[in-house]
Amino acid sequence: MKGMSIIVKTISSWVKILIFLFGIYIIIFGHLTPGGGFAGGVILACSYVLLMLAFGREFAEENLSLPIASKLDCLGALTFALIAILGLVWGGCFFVNFLYQKYLPGEPFRLISAGTIPLSNIAIGIKVGASLFLIVVLLSSFRSNGLAGKKE
Amino acid sequence: MLYTLCFLLFMIGLYCVLVKKNMVKIVIGLAVMEYAVNLFFIMAGYRTNGQAPIISPQDLAGKTEVTANFINTTVDPLPQALVLTSIVIGLGSLALMISLCVRIYEKYGTFDITEIRRLRG
Amino acid sequence: MSYRLPAFIFVPLVTAFVLPLFGKKGKSVAALLANVVTIALLALAISCLGQREVYEVGKWPIPLGINLVLDGLSCLVLVIINIVAASAMLYSTRYMEQYTAKSKYLSLFMLLVTSLNGAVLSGDIFNLFVFLEIASLTSYALVGFGCGDEELEASFKYMVLGEIASMIILFAIALVYANTGALNMAYVSKAIQTRSLNPSLTFALAFFIAGFGLKAALVPFHAWLPDAHSSAPAPVSAMLSGVFIKVLGVYALTRLIFNIFGISIPLGWILIALGVLSMVAGVFLAVGQWDFKRLLAYHSISQMGYVVIGIGMGTLILAQGGDILWASLAILGGLFHLINHAVFKSLLFLTSGSVEMSTGTRQLKQMGGLADKLPFTRATCTIASASIAGVPPFNGFWSKLILVVAAFQSRMFWLAAITVIVSLVTLISFLKVQKYIFLGELPDNLKDVKENKGTMLIAMLFLSGLCIAMGLLLLPAMKDVVLDPAVQVLTDGLGYSSKLIVAQ
């Protein structure tokens, strides 16, 4: 898949890092301002999609290869499940906010305040970002000569 | 009145699914139906002249309680959380439908549903 | 023991995300892990029989948080889901060798089991919707798994209709929330009891019947079922036809009508009308089919009609204020037929997959005389056909008998007559299946077919053993533990909410 002109390539190589940073901001501050895991994950995926549109699909695949994205996907989901199971081990019930109630209550409106909620946001953000990146890259590789790859 | 407009949008999406012959237009109709239902759900939680349900330091009366003024003036935040889930589900199903459309185009060579009828009876 | 209920949802979910990490070298380990997980879930489900439990996720009290509820009806359906899932998983370790992407199949299958377990256990309407969506999306992907021409077409048709159903259900949930302000099933039920049904709640109920009826493949909404169930791989067809249309169709509908909205006479007549249409249309469309799996899919429609008739009769008798004994009997017939149908229909689909794997075709006219070549497949297919047609010692006979007796006792003789006639036509179509596949002359190109042994055989023998033994569930000792709590939940009706709010 071909990329675009030199102007687009230059600007997008500067802008992609800002988009990535914005996505991380939305994920981490998800318990204080609107946003959270899913919205931040979509923005993270958007930065890679910008890379794919400007430079071509092969360049984006070299940057974040498909097997690594697949492993990140599974790891995000397993981290989320691990947080829930740790709630069982240390709190007595699934998904209990054990950090808030026992170890690290924090104060309202600070970054470290809501217990396990920021950690869940980060796990969901990684998973959604990896999944959407995979979806867009694989859908764009359906050209008229077909595809050999995974079906999602 | 606004609720009937939401329902009208739902019916427009349903009309698109029933009448159009191009597969991608059917998918677009399904997406319009989904947006109509999400819009209806958010509007069900609206309160006239309400504020956004974001807590700021003046709304806290103590460490874990909010003031009564906050509860009486903000819109309902529960439908907003539910609609977030619903939008994520819609994204997943849209991705699946589009990839099905692309695969069917590979096999049958057309997007027209009247020609994709090998299963009959 | 307090983590028993979330384990049904969490264990398959974690397995589904761990399985892709095994990669190419660990394929047999992945299949072994999947099998162990499904069999463990089956053991856990059987140990839950006859108990009631409410589990609050995250220790949030009931109206604020999600809760998982286990009562008689949930227990019964949970056991059936796990029986069919364990058998289908055993079968698919050998059957799916024909396809190339087996590791993805295992993940998708585990997600399907997760979502079905979650839908049965949830005590919250929106949680039910989320699990319904997960189940639907994984089943769309599984139906089109082979990526051949017909499978993709069937998957697309199924997907469009299924998504319309999901949107209709979400609209109805939004209407219920706007009217009652709660999403927990017990709280919604209490709110609807304190104020009677206004027009928008009746509209929501109509949308619920349409949406769940489309998922259950009742007759005006059945158009997706023949294509989807005949094009899917055989263990997926068994899961879809044996469990999916029951959990997401009939279970959700009965939970809504009996425990949340409350029964009434028009509802009873609507259910009976839908059931009769499904029975008659399904079986008459099935007799003329020449494709084995399509014939089985049409029979699924007709047998679901039996279940809905049982429940409709129970609704009608209770709403008319009649004798609660006959209402319980009708509901018992409906629920017993639900679990019987899960067992014998999945067995039929598994045998059809075995025949297809041996001979390479599904058309009845191209087969014949396979009785000596495939002895075990023939034995299990005969047992399953006798069950579905209602031949005496097998389990289909007992549930149909209870339905006919209940119809007689409530003076609906026409309903009993229709039930018996539909049974006869079912018998005719399965005699046709037996004749064309197993008896007759062996065509030349099928001279060296071989029997499929291994895990496929174990799964089929397990299900046929269940077919023979499930008639014993009507013995009083077993009935009290397994079937009566389920009937009790439904005939209690609106008492569900008061028990739940007290029990927190």
Describe the overall structure:
- The complex is a heterotrimer of chains A (152), B (121) and C (504).
- With 152 residues, chain A is an all-alpha fold.
- Chain A is 69% helix and 0% strand.
- Chain A has helices at residues 6-28, 37-55, 57-63, 66-91, 98-103, 117-140.
- In chain A, α1 (6-28) packs antiparallel against α2 (37-55), α2 packs across α3 and α2 runs parallel beside α6 (117-140).
- The longest helix of chain A is centred in the middle third of the chain and has 26 residues, at 66-91.
- Chain A is elongated, with a radius of gyration of 18 Å.
- Chain B is mostly helical and 121 residues long.
- Chain B is built from 4 helices and no strands.
- Chain B has helices spanning 2-19, 23-43, 68-73, 78-108.
- In chain B, α1 packs antiparallel against α2 (23-43) and α2 runs antiparallel to α4 (78-108).
- Chain C is mostly helical.
- Chain C has 20 helices and 2 strands.
- Chain C has helices at residues 4-18, 27-47, 72-95, 102-121, 125-143, 149-180, 185-194, 199-216, 225-231, 234-261, 265-287, 292-319, 324-359, 375-389, 395-409, 413-438, 455-469, 476-482, 484-492, 495-502; strands at residues 53-56, 67-70.
- Chain C has a two-stranded antiparallel sheet with strand order 1-2.
- In chain C, α8 (199-216) packs antiparallel against α10 (234-261), α11 packs antiparallel against α12 (292-319) and α12 (292-319) packs antiparallel against α16 (413-438).
- The model of chain C has no long low-confidence stretch (mean pLDDT 86).
- At the A-B interface, α6 of A face α4 of B.
Give the largest interface pair and sizes.
B-C, 33 and 34 residues
Radius of gyration of chain A: 18 Å
**Assigned CATH architecture of chain B:** Orthogonal Bundle
Q: Estimate nothing, just give the exact number of structural domains of chain B.
A: 1
Helix and strand content put the structural class of chain A at mainly alpha
Order of helices and strands of chain B: HHHH
Q: Tell me the major beta sheet of chain B.
A: none
SS elements, strand count of chain A: 0
- How much of the residues of chain B is beta strand, in percent? under 5%
The helix-strand sequence of chain A is HHHHHH
- Distinct helical segment count of chain B: 4
User: How many domain units of chain A?
Assistant: 1
Give unreliable regions of chain A as ranges: 147-152
Helix content of chain A: 55-70%
Largest sheet of chain A: none
The chain-level mean pLDDT of chain B equals 87
Q: Briefly note the CATH topology name of chain B.
A: Helix Hairpins
What's the end-to-end separation of chain B, in Å?
A: 44 Å
